[in-house]
Amino acid sequence: MAGFSQERIRQLIDRFEGLEAQMADSANLSGEEFARLSKEYAELTDVVAGARELRRIRREIDSLGEIVADPDSDAEMRALAAEEMEELKDRLPEVERDLQLRLLPKDAADERSVILEIRAGTGGDEAALFAGDLFRMYQRHADLHGWKVEIMSASDSSVGGFKEVIASVSGKGVYSRLKFESGVHRVQRVPVTEAGGRIHTSAATVAVLPEAEEVDVQIEDKDLRIDVFRASGAGGQHVNTTESAVRITHLPTGIMVSQQDEKSQHKNRAKALKILRARLYEHEREQRDAERSDARRSQVGSGDRSERIRTYNFPQNRVTDHRINLTLYKLDLIIQGEGLDEMIDALVAEDQAERLAALETAGGF
Q: Exposed (0-12), middle (13-18) or buried (19+): which is 319, by Cβ within 10 Å?
C-alpha cells in the first residue's frame, strides 16, 4: 500500500490551519461564508488528527534512526531506540490505512435518519411472520444504539407479522449503518403452521431510504395527484367514516404512497409526503449512481431490493450474507438485534476495502 507523501500531509494541515485563521477573523465574514468554512473545517478535523499522528510517528522514526546510526551514542540507548523504532514501523501501516479511511469520500446521506420499509415476499403467512421478525430485529438493534423507531404505516397479517410495515428510524448516522440491509432476506425454518416438520423457505424485502429534506427534493404541486378515501381495516377495525386516508402519486415517476393509519387526513398527507420525498431522493441517487455504476459498483451489492442478500437458517442457527460470503452461527443473537453489529461491521469493512482499492488504482492517494 502506497504511503502518504510529506507534501500531501503538509497540504492537509496547512489547509486546516488556514481555515482556523479565517474563522478566527469571523467579523469580516458573511454568515454564509462562515457556515461554508465551518463545514469544511468540521470535515477536515478528523482527517487532520490522523495526518498529524502519521507525521508524528514518521518524525519519531527518523529521530530514533539517527540515534541507532550514531556510533558515538550509548550502546544501551541505541538498543532501546532500535526496539522502539521497530514498534513504530510496525504500527505505521495501520496509521496510514486509518488516514486513508478518514479521507474516503463520504456518502452525503450517511448521517441521516432513514425510512425503513419491510414487505413480505414469497411464502404466504410464513413470509409475513418473518417480516415481523425482521422488523423487531431492527427495533431492538435501534434501541441498543439509542435510535428512535416510529411506525408510519403497517398492514398486519391475519396470523401475525406484517404484510408491509414502514417506519422512520431517527438518530445520528443511522443510514451509514443500515444502508447495507436493503435487499431480499430469505428464511429457512419449520413454520409454526407446518404439522409435518418440513423446512420451508420464505422471503421478505427490506428497503432503507435516507430521509430527505425539502431542500433535497423539489416537489411541484402540478406533479402530484392526491386522492382521498375512507380508511379500511381487517374485520372492520380502524375503519374511519370520513375520507381521511390519502394516496399521493408522483406523476413524473409513477411513485405512489398511501397512508391511512392516522384519523386525520392532514397527518396522513404529511406522512405520505415524507415517505414520497425519501423515495424520490433515493430514486435520484440511484440514477446518479447508475451513471457511474461500472466504476463504483461495490462488492457488498448495489442495494437493489430484488437482490438476495442474506439467508437466515433457523435449524442450523446460521446467518449467511451472500455478498461477502460471511456465515455466522449466531442467528439467535442476530435476530434479537444484538448480533447484527458484527454482520454490519463486516459489510462496512468490505465496502471500505473496495473503495480504498478503487482510489489506489485511480491514484487517489
A: buried
